[in-house]
Amino acid sequence: MENLRSQFEAVALPLMPSIYGAAWRLLHNEQDAADLVQETYLRAFRTFPSFRPGTNCKAWLFTILYSIFINRYHQQRRRPSLVALDELGDTVADPSAPVEFARLLDDRTIQWEDAEVSAALKQLPDEFRLTVLLVDVEGLTYEEAAASLQCPVGTVRSRLARARRALFESLREYARERGLLPRERRAGSD
Questions:
Q1: CA distances from residue 99 to 3, 76, 89, 138 in whole angstroms, order as listed
Q2: Segment 99-158, tens digit of pLDDT
Q3: Cβ-contact 149, 131 below 8 angstroms
Q4: Residues 6 or more apart from 65 whose CB is under 8 A from it?
Q5: What is the largest CA-CA distance in the chain?
Q6: Which of 11, 91, 151, 164 is the most buried (most CB within 10 A)?
Q7: Nearest-CA neighbor of 107 among 19, 171, 17, 15?
Q8: Burial of 71 by CB count in 10 Å (0-12 exposed, 13-18 middle, 19+ buried)?
Q9: 0.70 cut: is pTM over it?
């Protein structure tokens, strides 16, 4: 038992800041995030014998976190209304925006704790927000995110594309003000 505990502490505990960050971004409340992380680590310790050494412990912890989030929090709250893809497409001016935004996510000048970014993330439905957090913020692969979210890889790709498109629209001016996007050219200024 002592060996199991020391292995758990060596593998899982260093990831706690990342797990807490994801919980906070999901819940936007320090106490609720701390409770979610505590429950995640308690469940992870109980099931640690099932963890396969050499696999991605961060993805495994996110799987547990997401499962608890869904079971404990998501069902207690009113489910957010989902926007149909064709409705979202009508609000997006540039169809290449998701690709451009994906490039911007890799730019370390973006401050994820800025009020504008936090507000844009908070506006996303939970499924989309968590997908962006897992893939674009935490750096999980699509396959690892799909395992964490307990959904097919295609669903992760779809959610990520829709979330990036919505974030691009929400953060377009924010990105321009910080020099991350070129200024729009005015008609007739060629």
A1: 46, 34, 15, 18
A2: 344 444 444 444 555 778 888 888 888 889 889 888 988 888 999 888 888 889 999 999
A3: yes
A4: 19, 22, 23, 36, 37, 40, 148
A5: 74
A6: 164
A7: 171
A8: exposed
A9: no
